[in-house]
Amino acid sequence: MSDTGRQRAPRNRTLTLSEAERNACAARLVRVSAPVNGADVLDRTIHGDCLEVMAQLPAHMADLLFLDPPYNITKEFNGARFAARTVDEYEVWLESWLPRLLRVAKPTASVYICGDWRSSTAIQRCAERHLIVRNRITWEREKGRGAQANWKSCSEDIWFCTVSEEYTFNADDVKLKRRVIAPYRDDAGAPKDWEETACGRYRLTSPSNIWTDLTVPFWSMPENTDHPTQKPEKLLARVILASSNPGDVVLDPFLGSGTSSVVAKKLGRHYIGIEIDETYCCLAEKRLELADEETRIQGYDGEAFLERNTSGETRSRRDIATRTAHGQGRLFAEAGGATERE
Ligand SMILES: C[S@@+](CC[C@H](N)C(=O)[O-])C[C@H]1O[C@@H](n2cnc3c(N)ncnc32)[C@H](O)[C@@H]1O
Questions:
Q1: Helix (H) or strand (E) holding 45
Q2: pLDDT tens digits for 139-149?
Q3: How large a percentage of the chain has pLDDT more than 70?
Q4: Three-class SS of residue 40?
Q5: DSSP run (H or E) holding 205
Q6: C-alpha 196 chain-centroid distance
Q7: Which of 121-125, 178-182, 203-207 is most confident?
Q8: CATH class assigned to 19-170+207-294
Q9: Is 277 in the pocket of ligand 1 (CB under 6 A)?
């Protein structure tokens, strides 16, 4: 996936790798073939098969596991093909690795497992055998082909599980900033549970398990790569803010283009990412390097999540420049990041 010879439109912001960048990124990857200390892999990208790697990591080192394995559909990952199978066969496949991965989770850890409707039944059954399943989040994926004889598939699931009854959940850190439809006032004329700003009237609300404010990364978003199933940074921000604290360890054994590591870094968490494909590892490394300078997360203003990724809805440019979350994430679109549909 080095970008030699491929023509892209001038406004296409998809991240690519030159040969030199690829070599520099590859040199930073870790390979693990024997037991390692946590410090050897903390804040690193590991190139390898997660099942082999996880067996070598110290037990109980992760506060949050984000699991985004190949879904139960036929899909190519840079030449490696995952083949769709029956629900029962997919469940057997999950069972072959999930319990083995869990040895790295702390007793207080949360585990999020992603899937689509074809994978979800198997994920639920498998997760219930090894974890406490707390919720199923369904998020709207705007992309997707229309179908003539079926409903267009526009949703995905994330199963929220914990290892025990003791776990982190920072509900106040993942509030949604919603435009107020009915701006009620109290007897003194003051806004009831909402805020009057120069940009409009807003209320902070707790998010439900239906997430409709996300955009799958695409060509005009600076976080976009050529990875075929890249998750939005905004989605990972919500998971990481809710289910970890600054300084905690976020571990992703199916790292892909690196979204979880990048967002963990932007939000002041430690990260460990494992990915079997070297090109994807290098893309993750390039994104991590860019995150040294660019700490903003599109659609998150450092205090709350915006209903859309677009700019200007909630805060003036001056407000945004001064606001940070845990000293890290800031609103993206205001400062020249792409809007959702350019
Ligand atoms: C659904 S994608 C993850 C996408 C990722 N969340 C992102 O935002 O880019 C699954 C990834 O798992 C990788 N993968 C598949 N089998 C693996 C294994 N045994 N060990 C490590 N990575 C694996 C694939 O190469 C693919 O990049």
A1: strand 44-47
A2: 998 766 778 89
A3: 88
A4: helix
A5: strand 200-205
A6: 31
A7: 121-125
A8: alpha beta
A9: yes
Distances (CA, A) of 166 to 213, 255, 286: 29, 26, 36
Which alpha helices (DSSP H) does 74-221 contain, by range? 87-101, 117-130
User: Which residue type occupies 101?
Assistant: L
Determine the pLDDT at residue 174.
98
Residue 47 contacts residue 280 (beta carbons within 8 Å):
no
CA–centroid distance, residue 68 to ligand 1 (Å): 7
**Does the CB atom of residue 45 touch ligand 1 within 6 A?**
no
Tokens in use for 232? 């939005």
Distance CA 116, CA 138 (A): 9
What is the CA(229)–ligand 1 centre distance, in A? 9
Closest ligand 1 atom, residue 284 Cα? 9
Q: How far is the CA of 203 from the centre of ligand 1 (A)?
A: 37
Atom number, ligand 1, closest to the C-alpha of residue 225: 9
**pLDDT higher than 50, residue 122:** yes
Residue from 54, 97, 234, 276 whose mutation best tests the ligand 1 pocket (most atoms within 8 A of CB):
276
pLDDT per position as a tens digit, 189-205: 888 888 888 878 899 99
